Design the sequence.
Protein backbone atom coordinates (compact mmCIF):
# COMPACT_ATOMS: atom_id res chain seq x y z
CA UNK A 1 0.00 0.00 0.00
CA UNK A 2 1.35 3.39 -0.99
CA UNK A 3 0.88 6.22 1.49
CA UNK A 4 0.32 9.54 -0.25
CA UNK A 5 0.73 13.11 0.85
CA UNK A 6 -2.80 14.48 1.59
CA UNK A 7 -1.90 17.82 -0.10
CA UNK A 8 0.04 16.80 -3.20
CA UNK A 9 -0.88 13.12 -3.65
CA UNK A 10 2.79 12.11 -3.89
CA UNK A 11 4.19 8.94 -2.35
CA UNK A 12 5.73 9.63 1.04
CA UNK A 13 9.38 8.83 1.76
CA UNK A 14 9.27 6.35 4.70
CA UNK A 15 11.92 6.19 7.43
CA UNK A 16 12.09 4.69 10.93
CA UNK A 17 13.32 7.04 13.66
CA UNK A 18 13.61 7.31 17.43
CA UNK A 19 12.33 10.63 18.76
CA UNK A 20 13.72 11.99 22.01
CA UNK A 21 10.87 13.54 24.01
CA UNK A 22 11.01 15.20 27.43
CA UNK A 23 9.53 12.13 29.11
CA UNK A 24 11.58 9.57 27.14
CA UNK A 25 12.18 8.21 23.66
CA UNK A 26 9.63 6.73 21.25
CA UNK A 27 10.00 4.81 18.03
CA UNK A 28 8.01 6.07 15.08
CA UNK A 29 7.61 5.72 11.33
CA UNK A 30 8.01 9.06 9.55
CA UNK A 31 6.63 9.82 6.07
CA UNK A 32 8.00 12.86 4.24
CA UNK A 33 6.41 14.48 1.19
CA UNK A 34 9.08 14.79 -1.56
CA UNK A 35 7.61 18.16 -2.66
CA UNK A 36 6.59 20.16 0.39
CA UNK A 37 8.85 18.19 2.81
CA UNK A 38 6.04 18.08 5.39
CA UNK A 39 6.61 15.21 7.80
CA UNK A 40 3.84 12.88 8.93
CA UNK A 41 3.94 10.45 11.86
CA UNK A 42 2.10 7.20 12.52
CA UNK A 43 0.86 8.08 16.02
CA UNK A 44 -0.92 10.69 18.11
CA UNK A 45 0.93 11.53 21.30
CA UNK A 46 -1.95 13.32 23.03
CA UNK A 47 -5.73 13.48 22.67
CA UNK A 48 -6.85 15.79 19.90
CA UNK A 49 -3.23 16.48 18.98
CA UNK A 50 -2.98 17.07 15.25
CA UNK A 51 0.69 17.90 15.24
CA UNK A 52 3.70 18.47 17.53
CA UNK A 53 7.24 19.80 17.24
CA UNK A 54 10.51 18.15 18.36
CA UNK A 55 13.85 19.98 18.01
CA UNK A 56 12.35 22.49 15.59
CA UNK A 57 10.76 19.83 13.34
CA UNK A 58 6.96 19.66 13.12
CA UNK A 59 5.29 16.24 12.77
CA UNK A 60 1.67 15.87 11.59
CA UNK A 61 -0.43 12.83 12.50
CA UNK A 62 -1.66 10.80 9.49
CA UNK A 63 -4.28 8.06 9.94
CA UNK A 64 -3.30 6.05 6.84
CA UNK A 65 0.28 5.98 8.12
CA UNK A 66 -0.94 4.70 11.48
CA UNK A 67 -2.96 1.92 9.82
CA UNK A 68 -0.04 0.76 7.67
CA UNK A 69 2.53 1.04 10.50
CA UNK A 70 0.68 0.40 13.78
CA UNK A 71 2.30 1.27 17.09
CA UNK A 72 3.17 -1.56 19.51
CA UNK A 73 3.52 0.16 22.88
CA UNK A 74 4.51 -3.02 24.73
CA UNK A 75 7.25 -3.77 22.24
CA UNK A 76 8.54 -0.21 22.52
CA UNK A 77 8.52 -0.45 26.29
CA UNK A 78 10.45 -3.73 26.23
CA UNK A 79 12.89 -2.28 23.71
CA UNK A 80 13.39 0.80 25.86
CA UNK A 81 13.98 -1.38 28.94
CA UNK A 82 16.48 -3.50 27.05
CA UNK A 83 18.34 -0.43 25.85
CA UNK A 84 18.40 0.99 29.38
CA UNK A 85 19.67 -2.30 30.79
CA UNK A 86 22.28 -2.59 28.03
CA UNK A 87 23.49 0.91 28.85
CA UNK A 88 23.73 0.05 32.57
CA UNK A 89 25.59 -3.19 31.74
CA UNK A 90 28.01 -1.28 29.53
CA UNK A 91 28.66 1.24 32.29
CA UNK A 92 29.23 -1.53 34.86
CA UNK A 93 31.52 -3.37 32.44
CA UNK A 94 33.53 -0.20 31.87
CA UNK A 95 33.85 0.29 35.64
CA UNK A 96 34.96 -3.34 36.14
CA UNK A 97 37.48 -3.13 33.30
CA UNK A 98 38.86 0.10 34.72
CA UNK A 99 39.24 -1.44 38.18
CA UNK A 100 40.85 -4.58 36.76
CA UNK A 101 43.23 -2.47 34.66
CA UNK A 102 44.15 -0.41 37.73
CA UNK A 103 44.62 -3.59 39.77
CA UNK A 104 46.75 -5.16 37.03
CA UNK A 105 48.79 -1.99 36.65
CA UNK A 106 49.33 -1.85 40.40
CA UNK A 107 50.51 -5.47 40.42
CA UNK A 108 52.83 -4.81 37.47
CA UNK A 109 54.22 -1.73 39.19
CA UNK A 110 54.82 -3.74 42.35
CA UNK A 111 56.58 -6.51 40.41
CA UNK A 112 58.63 -3.93 38.56
CA UNK A 113 59.69 -2.38 41.86
CA UNK A 114 60.64 -5.81 43.16
CA UNK A 115 62.64 -6.52 40.01
CA UNK A 116 64.38 -3.16 40.30
CA UNK A 117 65.17 -3.88 43.95
CA UNK A 118 66.67 -7.27 43.06
CA UNK A 119 68.63 -5.65 40.24
CA UNK A 120 70.05 -2.94 42.52
CA UNK A 121 70.84 -5.55 45.16
CA UNK A 122 72.76 -7.61 42.60
CA UNK A 123 74.67 -4.51 41.46
CA UNK A 124 75.74 -3.83 45.05
CA UNK A 125 76.77 -7.46 45.48
CA UNK A 126 78.97 -7.28 42.37
CA UNK A 127 80.50 -4.02 43.51
CA UNK A 128 81.41 -5.62 46.84
CA UNK A 129 82.52 -8.90 45.25
CA UNK A 130 83.53 -8.70 41.54
CA UNK A 131 83.99 -12.49 41.49
CA UNK A 132 80.37 -13.13 42.42
CA UNK A 133 79.00 -16.02 40.32
CA UNK A 134 75.98 -15.03 38.25
CA UNK A 135 73.57 -17.74 37.04
CA UNK A 136 71.73 -16.54 33.89
CA UNK A 137 68.31 -17.97 33.12
CA UNK A 138 68.32 -17.22 29.36
CA UNK A 139 70.96 -17.36 26.62
CA UNK A 140 70.71 -15.27 23.45
CA UNK A 141 72.99 -15.90 20.49
CA UNK A 142 73.68 -12.86 18.30
CA UNK A 143 75.94 -11.82 15.45
CA UNK A 144 77.14 -8.73 17.31
CA UNK A 145 77.19 -8.18 21.06
CA UNK A 146 74.90 -5.30 22.07
CA UNK A 147 75.88 -2.60 24.53
CA UNK A 148 72.47 -2.52 26.17
CA UNK A 149 69.88 -5.24 26.61
CA UNK A 150 67.43 -5.19 23.66
CA UNK A 151 64.68 -6.50 25.95
CA UNK A 152 64.70 -3.95 28.77
CA UNK A 153 67.35 -1.35 27.84
CA UNK A 154 69.60 -2.08 30.84
CA UNK A 155 73.37 -1.78 30.48
CA UNK A 156 75.14 -5.11 30.00
CA UNK A 157 77.95 -6.17 32.36
CA UNK A 158 80.78 -8.64 31.93
CA UNK A 159 80.52 -10.97 34.95
CA UNK A 160 81.47 -14.45 36.07
CA UNK A 161 78.73 -16.83 34.95
CA UNK A 162 77.70 -20.42 35.49
CA UNK A 163 75.11 -22.40 33.54
CA UNK A 164 74.91 -26.14 33.12
CA UNK A 165 76.39 -27.21 29.78
CA UNK A 166 78.14 -23.87 29.23
CA UNK A 167 81.92 -23.89 28.90
CA UNK A 168 82.38 -20.12 29.36
CA UNK A 169 83.14 -18.80 32.84
CA UNK A 170 82.59 -15.11 32.00
CA UNK A 171 80.12 -13.38 29.73
CA UNK A 172 78.17 -10.25 28.90
CA UNK A 173 74.92 -10.35 30.86
CA UNK A 174 71.82 -8.33 31.57
CA UNK A 175 71.37 -8.53 35.31
CA UNK A 176 67.79 -7.28 35.11
CA UNK A 177 66.27 -9.99 32.88
CA UNK A 178 68.96 -12.60 33.69
CA UNK A 179 70.12 -13.11 30.11
CA UNK A 180 73.57 -14.04 28.78
CA UNK A 181 74.56 -12.81 25.30
CA UNK A 182 76.94 -14.92 23.22
CA UNK A 183 78.39 -14.47 19.76
CA UNK A 184 77.33 -17.15 17.31
CA UNK A 185 80.86 -17.46 15.94
CA UNK A 186 82.28 -18.13 19.41
CA UNK A 187 79.94 -21.02 20.14
CA UNK A 188 81.84 -24.28 19.87
CA UNK A 189 80.28 -26.75 17.43
CA UNK A 190 81.43 -30.36 18.03
CA UNK A 191 83.04 -31.90 14.95
CA UNK A 192 81.89 -35.17 13.44
CA UNK A 193 84.29 -38.05 13.34
CA UNK A 194 85.37 -38.74 9.77
CA UNK A 195 85.84 -42.21 8.26
CA UNK A 196 89.58 -41.56 7.94
CA UNK A 197 89.83 -41.48 11.71
CA UNK A 198 88.73 -45.10 11.96
CA UNK A 199 91.70 -46.69 10.11
CA UNK A 200 89.62 -49.90 10.11
CA UNK A 201 90.77 -50.57 13.66
CA UNK A 202 88.24 -52.51 15.76
CA UNK A 203 87.74 -51.04 19.22
CA UNK A 204 85.55 -52.01 22.16
CA UNK A 205 82.28 -50.20 22.97
CA UNK A 206 83.83 -48.58 26.04
CA UNK A 207 86.93 -47.33 24.24
CA UNK A 208 84.74 -46.19 21.29
CA UNK A 209 82.63 -44.04 23.61
CA UNK A 210 85.80 -42.53 25.13
CA UNK A 211 87.26 -41.93 21.66
CA UNK A 212 84.07 -40.20 20.46
CA UNK A 213 84.04 -37.98 23.51
CA UNK A 214 87.70 -37.15 22.93
CA UNK A 215 87.14 -36.38 19.24
CA UNK A 216 84.21 -34.12 20.08
CA UNK A 217 81.54 -36.13 18.24
CA UNK A 218 78.07 -34.78 19.03
CA UNK A 219 76.05 -37.53 20.77
CA UNK A 220 72.43 -38.22 19.90
CA UNK A 221 70.79 -36.33 22.72
CA UNK A 222 67.35 -36.90 21.16
CA UNK A 223 66.35 -39.89 19.01
CA UNK A 224 63.37 -39.18 16.74
CA UNK A 225 61.78 -40.84 13.70
CA UNK A 226 62.35 -39.20 10.33
CA UNK A 227 58.60 -38.88 9.76
CA UNK A 228 55.52 -38.94 12.01
CA UNK A 229 53.37 -41.81 10.80
CA UNK A 230 50.07 -41.00 12.56
CA UNK A 231 49.02 -37.52 13.78
CA UNK A 232 46.68 -37.72 16.85
CA UNK A 233 43.75 -35.33 17.10
CA UNK A 234 45.40 -33.51 20.05
CA UNK A 235 48.50 -32.58 18.00
CA UNK A 236 49.26 -28.86 18.13
CA UNK A 237 52.60 -28.74 16.30
CA UNK A 238 54.94 -30.83 14.14
CA UNK A 239 58.57 -29.74 13.81
CA UNK A 240 61.79 -31.06 12.30
CA UNK A 241 64.76 -30.74 14.67
CA UNK A 242 68.36 -30.01 13.65
CA UNK A 243 71.25 -30.55 16.05
CA UNK A 244 74.08 -28.00 15.81
CA UNK A 245 71.63 -26.02 13.59
CA UNK A 246 72.39 -28.21 10.54
CA UNK A 247 72.17 -31.97 11.20
CA UNK A 248 68.60 -33.26 11.05
CA UNK A 249 67.69 -35.72 13.78
CA UNK A 250 64.06 -36.36 12.83
CA UNK A 251 60.53 -35.06 13.39
CA UNK A 252 58.73 -34.28 16.65
CA UNK A 253 54.97 -33.94 17.16
CA UNK A 254 53.73 -32.09 20.26
CA UNK A 255 50.38 -33.30 21.63
CA UNK A 256 48.16 -31.67 24.26
CA UNK A 257 46.66 -34.97 25.48
CA UNK A 258 49.14 -36.96 27.56
CA UNK A 259 47.41 -40.23 26.60
CA UNK A 260 48.52 -39.66 22.98
CA UNK A 261 52.17 -39.53 23.98
CA UNK A 262 54.45 -42.14 22.40
CA UNK A 263 58.10 -41.14 22.47
CA UNK A 264 59.28 -43.91 20.14
CA UNK A 265 56.86 -42.60 17.49
CA UNK A 266 58.01 -39.00 18.01
CA UNK A 267 54.85 -37.98 19.93
CA UNK A 268 55.68 -35.85 22.99
CA UNK A 269 53.24 -34.39 25.52
CA UNK A 270 53.41 -30.58 25.69
CA UNK A 271 54.25 -30.62 29.42
CA UNK A 272 57.59 -32.40 28.95
CA UNK A 273 60.90 -30.56 28.92
CA UNK A 274 61.81 -30.99 25.23
CA UNK A 275 58.46 -29.83 23.70
CA UNK A 276 58.27 -26.97 26.20
CA UNK A 277 61.74 -25.85 25.13
CA UNK A 278 60.77 -26.13 21.45
CA UNK A 279 57.63 -24.01 22.00
CA UNK A 280 59.66 -21.44 23.95
CA UNK A 281 62.14 -21.17 21.06
CA UNK A 282 59.32 -20.71 18.53
CA UNK A 283 57.67 -18.03 20.67
CA UNK A 284 60.80 -16.06 21.61
CA UNK A 285 63.50 -16.67 18.98
CA UNK A 286 63.02 -15.58 15.36
CA UNK A 287 65.43 -18.31 14.20
CA UNK A 288 63.72 -20.93 16.43
CA UNK A 289 66.99 -21.96 18.09
CA UNK A 290 67.40 -23.36 21.60
CA UNK A 291 69.79 -25.22 23.89
CA UNK A 292 68.74 -28.60 25.26
CA UNK A 293 70.92 -30.67 27.61
CA UNK A 294 73.87 -28.45 26.75
CA UNK A 295 73.59 -28.84 22.97
CA UNK A 296 72.28 -26.48 20.33
CA UNK A 297 69.20 -27.23 18.27
CA UNK A 298 67.05 -25.55 15.68
CA UNK A 299 63.37 -26.23 14.94
CA UNK A 300 61.77 -26.09 11.52
CA UNK A 301 57.97 -25.85 11.73
CA UNK A 302 56.35 -28.47 9.50
CA UNK A 303 52.69 -27.98 10.45
CA UNK A 304 50.61 -26.07 13.01
CA UNK A 305 47.24 -27.23 14.34
CA UNK A 306 44.39 -25.61 16.35
CA UNK A 307 45.43 -24.95 19.93
CA UNK A 308 49.04 -23.91 19.23
CA UNK A 309 48.29 -20.19 19.75
CA UNK A 310 47.12 -20.84 23.31
CA UNK A 311 50.52 -22.21 24.33
CA UNK A 312 52.52 -19.64 22.35
CA UNK A 313 50.55 -16.81 24.01
CA UNK A 314 51.26 -18.26 27.47
CA UNK A 315 54.97 -18.65 26.74
CA UNK A 316 55.24 -15.16 25.25
CA UNK A 317 53.54 -13.70 28.31
CA UNK A 318 55.74 -15.54 30.81
CA UNK A 319 58.98 -14.90 28.88
CA UNK A 320 58.56 -11.12 28.74
CA UNK A 321 61.08 -9.70 31.26
CA UNK A 322 59.37 -6.30 31.22
CA UNK A 323 56.12 -7.80 32.52
CA UNK A 324 57.03 -10.54 35.02
CA UNK A 325 54.16 -12.86 35.89
CA UNK A 326 53.33 -14.36 39.26
CA UNK A 327 53.68 -18.17 39.38
CA UNK A 328 52.15 -20.19 42.24
CA UNK A 329 54.04 -23.40 42.96
CA UNK A 330 52.09 -26.11 44.80
CA UNK A 331 53.88 -28.84 46.72
CA UNK A 332 51.02 -31.29 46.29
CA UNK A 333 49.82 -32.60 42.93
CA UNK A 334 46.12 -32.47 43.79
CA UNK A 335 44.74 -28.91 43.93
CA UNK A 336 41.06 -29.84 43.64
CA UNK A 337 40.33 -27.81 46.76
CA UNK A 338 41.06 -24.66 44.73
CA UNK A 339 38.92 -23.12 42.04
CA UNK A 340 40.90 -24.34 39.02
CA UNK A 341 39.20 -21.80 36.74
CA UNK A 342 41.25 -19.13 38.53
CA UNK A 343 44.54 -20.87 37.73
CA UNK A 344 46.46 -21.59 34.55
CA UNK A 345 48.66 -24.70 34.42
CA UNK A 346 52.12 -23.99 33.03
CA UNK A 347 55.51 -25.71 32.99
CA UNK A 348 57.99 -23.50 34.80
CA UNK A 349 61.68 -23.67 35.69
CA UNK A 350 62.06 -22.46 39.29
CA UNK A 351 65.59 -21.42 40.29
CA UNK A 352 66.69 -20.97 43.88
Sequence:
Amino acid sequence: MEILCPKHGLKLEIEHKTLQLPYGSIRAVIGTCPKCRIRYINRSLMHSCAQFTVDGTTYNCLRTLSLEYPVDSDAERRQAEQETQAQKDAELKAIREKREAEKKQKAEDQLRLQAEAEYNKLLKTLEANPNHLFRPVFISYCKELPTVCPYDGKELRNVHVYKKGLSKDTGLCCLYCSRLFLLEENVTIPKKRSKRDNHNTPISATSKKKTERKMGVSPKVVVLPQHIEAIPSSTILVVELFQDYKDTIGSLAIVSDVSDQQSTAGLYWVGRSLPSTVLAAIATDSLKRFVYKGYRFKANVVAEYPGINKYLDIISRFSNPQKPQTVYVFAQKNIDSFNTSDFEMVTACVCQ
Confidence is low (pLDDT under 50) at residues 189-193, 195-204, 206-217. The first strand starts at residue 13 and ends at 21. The CA atoms of residues 103 and 150 lie 28 Å apart. Residues 13-71 form one domain.
